[in-house]
Amino acid sequence: MNHLAKLLLVTAFAAESALAAQPPLRCVIEPDRTAEIGSPVIGVVEKVYVERGDTVKQGQLLAQLRSTVEQASVSAAQVRAQAEADIQAATANYEFQKQKLVRTEELMQKKFVSAQALDQVRAEASVAEQRLMQAREQKRLARQEVQFAQAQLGMRQIRAPFSGIVADRYVNAGERVEVKPMFRLAKIDPLRVEIIVPAAAYGSVVKGVQAQIIPELPNAAKLDAKVVLVDKLIDAASNTFRVRAELPNANAAIPSGLRCRAEIAGVAAALAVPAAAREATPKPLAASRVDTRLPAAKGR
User: Of 175, 169, 225, which is closest to residue 28 (Cα–Cα)?
Assistant: First the structure.
């Protein structure tokens, strides 16, 4: 076997050994998002519907503030919006004034009434029409007041902005809330995996590639995740960059907050090549000493 073949064989063997010896990447499993849920208004907690650890759906009621005044406002606005008496009275008056105007115009043609009387009847009909329009506007305004009162009532109901679990509950019934949060909500499907990757592997990871996640749990199996974000900045202190992967967790079987290890094929290969190259680089041969001294001149 010639020297070139031996060199290629040594390089391949060193690369394979370095790849196998490459430790998994460090990572941590976190919730996809967390939020501190508070109240948009000042009030007193009337009832709390969830406890820490409960699973909630988006829009689910978490707590209720006292809302006696707001409920009364909604009821009053609904009564005004449903009232028809003003519109019916204005409609009847307008119809009467129209008929009166028609009769007056007929009498005017027969010279039984004066022009002044006709002008007066026309003005009364116009006023009746404006009053009917005003009653209809009041009806629309009452409907808007119902929506406004319902919106104020809705601000007394604390609801989940997204589906997840209640990570913390900070209040109890009877407490006054102002600016402090009432709950901490965490979304755990999907989970977010933050992976720390050495800078030597920068460029070897792209968005959309698969990663295998191994949670630090007894007998934990490898889980498939997908890379969704690759940082464009490298941390100078640690000489690393971060990669974010998305880990499905439909049944909430994987707890968040775990440390883990990650394997990404492209990263392992990128980290293995420099080590293999260093191990496979042949050492320079020691330069042989050559006697450059001239032979001694023979005597003449």
Answer: 225
Question: C-alpha 187: how far from its chain's center?
Answer: 9
**Distance (Å, rounded) from C-alpha 192 to C-alpha 29?**
6
Structural domain that includes position 165: 10-66+161-280
Percent of the chain with pLDDT over 90: 53
- Mark whether 112 and 255 lie in a shared domain: no
The CATH number for 232's domain is 2.40.30.170
Counted domains in the chain = 2
Whether 60 and 82 map to the same domain: the answer is no
CA distances from 116 to 48, 66, 108, 123, 126 (A): 71, 62, 10, 11, 15
Would you place residue 282 in the very low, low, confident or very high pLDDT band (cuts 50, 70, 90)? low
Task: Looking at the structure, tell me whether residues 166 and 124 fall in a common domain.
Answer: no
- The CA distance from 234 to 205, in Å, is 14
Same domain, 100 and 225: no
Q: How many CB atoms lie within 10 A of CB 37?
A: 19
- Mean pLDDT value across residues 165-181: 93
Distance CA 73, CA 145 (A): 9
Read off the pLDDT band of 15 (50, 70, 90): very low
Find how far residue 142's CA is from the centre of its chain: 36
